[in-house]
Amino acid sequence: MHSIRKSLLSVILALLTFMAALTGISTTSPSVRAEEDYHLWSQMDPRWGNVPIGGSTIAKSGCLVTSIAILAVHSGEKDPETFNPGTFANSMSALGGFTSGGAIASWATITQVLPDVRVVDYTQFKSSDQAGKAAEIKARMDAGYYVIVNVNWHWVFVEGVVGNDVYMIDPAKDDVLLFDAYDNSGILEYEVFTGKNPPPAFTAPGSAEETTTTVTEVTTTTTAPVTTEPVTTTTTVTAAPDDTYELGEYCYTGFEPLSIYVSDSEDAELMAELRSGNIVSVLQVSDGRGLVKINGAPVWIDITKLTYTGAEPVLTAGDINGDGSIDCYDLALLNEYFKSLTYLPYGVSVLRSCEISAADINGDGAVNTADVMSYLQLICK
Ligand SMILES: [Ca+2]
Ligand SMILES: [Ca+2]
């Protein structure tokens, strides 16, 4: 089963890599910086470009390492005079933090090196257009988090959002506007991090010369209150009747993982952890708790922490995100679904059941390699 999933992932990876080549992720020439300004940090910088990460180097595979190093300085945890992508990579390597391919082996290792930096979410964009994606990033940053965006497997640090413009620090390019430098079709995923301090006020470069509208938007950005995680269903419902809650699919939207234990006893075994965006199916409700089945075993969880997904939309075959077209966004969701099968227990999913049904693009009742091939034929024609 795993080998099937692996081969599926390989096919999707190959396609997306091909698309990345089309959209032109390029590298810039190495350059020595006169002053230590982390805004200019490049993964190709000769001071650390050859520093090994697993079997690779920062220059070859260190875009995420460089982006996280930028985050550590930008958020006030580290001083750029004594810390940079090279020192960060060496600290990670000392803890076995990289795979042989140069990927970060475990998010926890990042936090061992940078105690204030923690991965709290890794997710697909829900929106398919620039405005929607910019709004998603801004919402996370207004909530006090940092965002690093994945563009066709290349990672860039987001410094701020003004209107629909997403300003980035790109380890491989000098460009600052995300959607000018990269095609929207490749901007599909992002990772959310904590930092020592919330994102500092951001002013778009040259904004003094911009229009009044833009300046107003900057003001909105800089004065937005920093809030804690937006758990939307934390109200006490002990006294609420059970018919308050519908039976059906619920989504967990909190940033912190929600632990599910086998029972209420203090030494109960951890059964699963729900992450933001995970879907569970509630079969029964009692005393503010919902009965779900995880790996076939019934367990009660706090339904007040979950959000009812509502009635199922009617989705046409192939259109997983229901935006009316069948494209790489749907294929990316299918990719995410296949990946999730390797780490989520049965009963927890990244997709709603209606979305899984829509992923069965050839309508044979199963979601598998044949559907991936159908997507590839449709998208590549
Ligand atoms: Ca779609
Ligand atoms: Ca199928």
What does this 3D model show about the protein?
- It is a single chain.
- By secondary structure, the chain is α+β, with helices and mostly antiparallel strands.
- Among the domains are: 87 residues, no CATH class; 110 residues; 67 residues, SH3 type barrels (Roll).
- The protein is 30% helix and 20% strand.
- The chain is built from 11 helices and 16 strands.
- Helix 1 packs antiparallel against helix 9 and helix 3 packs across helix 4.
- About 13% of the residues have low confidence.
- The structure holds calcium ion (2 copies).
Main traits of this protein?
alpha+beta, 11 helices, 4-stranded antiparallel sheet, SH3 type barrels, binds calcium ion, 5-stranded antiparallel sheet
How would you summarize what this structure contains?
With 381 residues, the protein is of the alpha+beta class. The protein is built from eleven helices and 16 strands. Among the domains are: 31-117, no CATH class; 119-228; 242-308, SH3 Domains (SH3 type barrels, Roll).
- Low-pLDDT regions: 17-33, 209-240
Spatial separation of the terminal alpha carbons: 29 Å
**Helical percentage:** 25-40%
Gyration radius from CA atoms, angstroms? 22 Å
**Proportion of residues in extended strands:** 15-25%
Question: What letter string, H or E per element, gives the SSE order?
Answer: HEEHHHHEHEEEHEHEEEEEEEEHEHH
Helix count, DSSP H or I runs of 4 or more residues: 11
